[in-house]
Write a structure and sequence with these properties.
alpha/beta, six-stranded parallel sheet, 7 helices, 15% strand, globular, binds farnesyl diphosphate
């Protein structure tokens, strides 16, 4: 167990390896996602217990729409089922759920599930869980640039007023502190269009463990690695 000191306020996770986990067991990829959902459930609880205040998880990237139809449908069904089954538990545990991503492409059922879980958990103060769904960091940055340009064009904003704070507040993550620690599972070493602006100073932690096998011990290993690092933000000690 990590010490309470130096716990990251915001942990972001690229939950990777569900497909390989299933393949290793001769199962369908969708079964890997079901096991991944269990890992997410454990991680929410473990992160809250460790004192993490914001947990962002990459649950469905905009690129994921290009996966086989059957797999996309299985993931959408999992979102709906997960939300329905977990709403009470999350609310009782003080978890506030927010969804970050473009919402326009979801079916009415998924859109309603998202709206409902955000509403039901809005008062949670223990942990904010941010589900990145239909999320693409580059699209998010393009949208923000477009909005800022529009405000300049309308005379609402001067070019000189464009600074890092304004850009941060124009992103989907407005109001959420930047991630301190980004974890990626399954032995891949990339950010895959996830929180590119927000993770500028984040510590990165990679593990070979496949997401469905990620447990409390793995989280604490990541938190311990984080606690041992020295963050300098480009300065000298
Ligand atoms: C990456 O594994 C995982 C995903 C694309 C989906 C993540 C979804 C979950 C963890 C469970 C569902 C949670 C919600 C909220 C819907 P992969 O399929 O890319 O694995 P692979 O790289 O081994 O093929």
């Amino acid at each position: 167990m990590s010490t309470r000191a130096n716990i990251p306020q915001h942990v972001a996770i690229i939950m990777d390896g569900n497909g390989r986990w299933a393949k290793l067991r001769g199962k369908e990829r969708s079964e890997g996602h079901v096991a991944g959902m269990e890992a997410l459930r454990r991680t929410i609880q473990n992160a809250a217990e460790a004192g993490v205040k914001y947990l962002t998880v990459y649950a469905f990237s905009t690129e994921n729409w290009g996966r086989p139809k059957q797999e996309v449908e299985a993931l959408m069904a999992l979102i709906c089922r997960g939300v329905e089954l977990e709403a009470d538990n999350l609310r009782e545990a003080g978890v506030r759920v927010k969804v970050m991503g473009r919402r326009a492409n979801f079916s009415a059922e998924v859109a309603e599930a998202i709206r409902s879980i955000e509403e039901q958990t809005a008062a949670g103060e223990q942990l904010t869980l941010i589900l990145a769904l239909d999320y693409s960091s580059r699209s998010e940055i393009c949208d923000a640039v477009r909005n800022i340009a529009r405000r300049v064009q309308q005379g609402e904003l001067a070019v000189e007023q464009i600074d890092e704070h304004l850009i941060s507040e124009s992103l989907l993550s407005a109001g959420v502190p930047d991630p301190d620690l980004v974890i990626r599972t399954s032995g891949e070493y990339r950010l895959s269009n996830f929180l590119l602006w927000q993770a500028s100073y984040a510590e990165l932690y990679f593990t070979d463990v496949l997401w469905p096998d990620f447990d409390g011990e793995e989280l604490h290993r990541a938190l311990e690695a984080y606690a041992a690092r020295e963050r300098r933000y480009g300065l000298v000690k």
